[in-house]
Amino acid sequence: MNMAFRPKSVLVRILDRPDPNELARIEAFVAAAAEGTAFHRPAWVLSVSKACGHEWRYLLAEDGDGILQGILPLHLIHSALFGRALVSSGFAVGGGILSDNDQAIQLLADEAWKFAERHSFPSVELRGGPVPDQRWQHVEGVYAGFVVSLADDDDSQLLAIPRKQRAEVRKGLNNDLMVRVGTGQQDRADHYTVYAESVRNLGTPVFPKDLFNQVLDGFGNDADILTVLHEGKPVASVLSLYHKQTVMPYWGGGTWEARRLRANDLMYYALMNHARERGCRMFDFGRSKFGTGAFSFKKNWGFEPQALSYATRTTEGETARDVNPMSPKYRAQVALWQRLPLGVANRIGPIIAKGLG
């Protein structure tokens, strides 16, 4: 006689302290999951918490045998300017529920909302992953991701870039530019100098320097900095994450001089070649909002945009946070920030940016 299959019950519990055994289990789960990202990893969750002061939690869905069926990393974001929210994951373009078990997905979402209600968070933001049910707002068509396969060698990689963009890379190659890769103090200092100037020019506050340091230390060999120098001076620099044979240039930028030198173009081409030498097969250009200059720039490199799916749930009568610098409500602030002296922007910026999450 055939017996009916009974799925094992799933329960959700909360991890709120860095137990090494538990974090190792989570790391292994993320590594084995097809949709696992760098932003699900303990290295990211703990680094953000240490650098920016936001508490963290992992919601763990386990079956009756204690086997992980799903996880949800959360950062508890508090900001006088931008409000309070549970975010998965803080300062990330990805995260959300990681599971292929329908029961675990719904239970993790329910537990996240219960936690939000208990601790007076008016909203929960899931940056990727499955959308639980109709109580969650499905946000799609705002951001796109860009991922492409890497070529087999430097020459093939150059030829894989569309003609107009390839011409820009060639101009960079013909300039007197040097590329340096590392994670030492000079690499970190040069990267922060360039990145801080770059985001000021865009009109947004720079993140705390310790966020970059904590991520580099937390990820170890899975993160590094590539810097382009002209006459010994850094003009473009990018901090990249490596996960599952994929490189993601995450925090990058260039000075005004970088535009003339085509240093940004050279930087991303050099990173493609560097990542391949590290064993990577894919290049993840991160997310950009539809209709922006960054979106067009990535398309010019031959990347096809793929719409990203986010989900939010908000207390009745409340509105979800808006931390998008492209939002019309921040137009005046962005214009003002672009005019700030760099030294002032670098002192004030990290205090504001901590609350973005």
Summarize the structure in words.
The protein is of the alpha+beta class and 357 residues long. It folds into 2 domains: 10-140 and 309-321, Gcn5-related N-acetyltransferase (GNAT) (Aminopeptidase); 151-280, Gcn5-related N-acetyltransferase (GNAT) (Aminopeptidase). Helix content is 39%, strand content 27%. It contains 12 helices and 12 strands. It has helices at 20-32, 42-52, 102-118, 154-160, 163-174, 185-202, 209-219, 256-261, 263-277, 293-300, 331-338, 342-353, and strands spanning 10-15, 55-63, 68-77, 85-88, 123-126, 137-149, 177-182, 223-230, 233-243, 246-254, 282-289, 305-314. The protein has a 12-stranded mixed β-sheet with strand order 1-2-3-4-5-12-6-11-10-9-8-7, with helices on both faces. Helix 2 runs antiparallel to helix 7 and helix 5 (163-174) packs across helix 9 (263-277). The longest helix has 18 residues, at 185-202. It is globular. The N and C termini lie far apart (55 Å). The model is unreliable at 1-6 (pLDDT under 50).
Quick description:
With 357 residues, the protein is an alpha+beta fold. The protein has helices spanning 20-32, 42-52, 102-118, 154-160, 163-174, 185-202, 209-219, 256-261, 263-277, 293-300, 331-338, 342-353; strands at residues 10-15, 55-63, 68-77, 85-88, 123-126, 137-149, 177-182, 223-230, 233-243, 246-254, 282-289, 305-314.
